[in-house]
Amino acid sequence: MTICLLDIMNRKRRALMQYLPFDKPGRFYRGNLHTHSTRSDGRKSPDEVCRFYREMGYHFLSITDHFLDQYGYPITDTSLCWDDNFITILGAELHAGKTEIGEMWHILANGLPSDFARPLPGETGPEIAKRALDAGAFVTAAHPAWYDLGEADILSLGPVHAIEIVNGISADHNDRLYSWHIVDRLAALGHRYSALATDDAHFHDRHQDLLRGWVWVKAQELTPQAILDALKAGDTYNSTGPQFFDVQIIPGDKVHVRCSPAQQIMVTGKGPEAHTLHGNGLIEGEISLKRWRSPYCRVTIRDRHGELAWTNIIWFD
């Protein structure tokens, strides 16, 4: 019996190691998947936006101008801005139909084809999201906190990949920077989404919307397809500052974390379940899961400046 249990635990551990990005081949690339240029309501040209993120050490960027008639339905090609350490991915912020409270839908689509069709008359948010998915895009429900998306709204979009959990411009726009609450709530109900942190940069003087949140993607090469494949597989973590170097989970036993210096390592599960490790300049830590009841967890680190990094939700099955 003991040997069988050990075998089951080892198989679970191997499965989780395959699911988590840290042991996968390749390296982590830093990117921003939500930003705007003068092609819609941004204040900098596409070239200037690319130059800013390239100089800030980002490896990839998607300019996601508003896909609206008033801007000519732009899908902005910035491939001339590429170099050996920086690429761009075609994308747009899609709008069609109304949410549950009557607001226009905002749906982030990265990896769209350049000829993605304009919204059809009467097209809904879920319908345009499906078209983006069918076209091969990585599709995200944008800034739920910013415009009061509910659970029913998210679920109506069908099998979108992610929910935006940091939206930089929202911090100064209406004090709604974070949207983890709805990812956690939907996970508690059994629904599985990746998380995505972004700037939603417009380069307005009145908003501090730059370098507020980003995604780290584990991929074997820096190409649009490799980045998109890794995003869809959930081989990511998100940050407003600190970095994960490794996360290993043994279900029923422990979480082991290596990271940049942190003051807190937290494991969060269903409902109020959470375990926390505190310290001064933690770069490694273990948290016991001996009494853990949740079928999943996510790991958070917080540094001395209050900045955060999060894994995606990790399901133990």
Describe this protein with a few key phrases.
Immunoglobulin-like; alpha/beta; 6-stranded mixed sheet; 7 helices; 317 residues; 22% helix; TIM Barrel; globular; 11-stranded mixed sheet
Classify the beta-strand content into a percent band. 25-35%
What's the number of helices? Answer: 7
Overall pLDDT? 94
Number of strands: 17
Task: Kindly report the name of the CATH homologous superfamily of the largest domain.
Answer: Metal-dependent hydrolases
Q: State the helicity in percent bands.
A: 10-25%
Spatial shape: globular
| CATH classification, class level of the largest domain | Alpha Beta
Task: Work out the radius of gyration.
Answer: 20 Å
What is the total domain count? 2
Largest β sheet strand count, sense and barrel closure:
11 strands, mixed
Structural class: alpha/beta
CATH architecture of the largest domain: Alpha-Beta Barrel
Catalogue the unreliable spans.
none
Distance between the termini: 21 Å
CATH topology of the largest domain: TIM Barrel
Order of helices and strands: HEHEEEEEHEHEHHEEHEEEEEEE
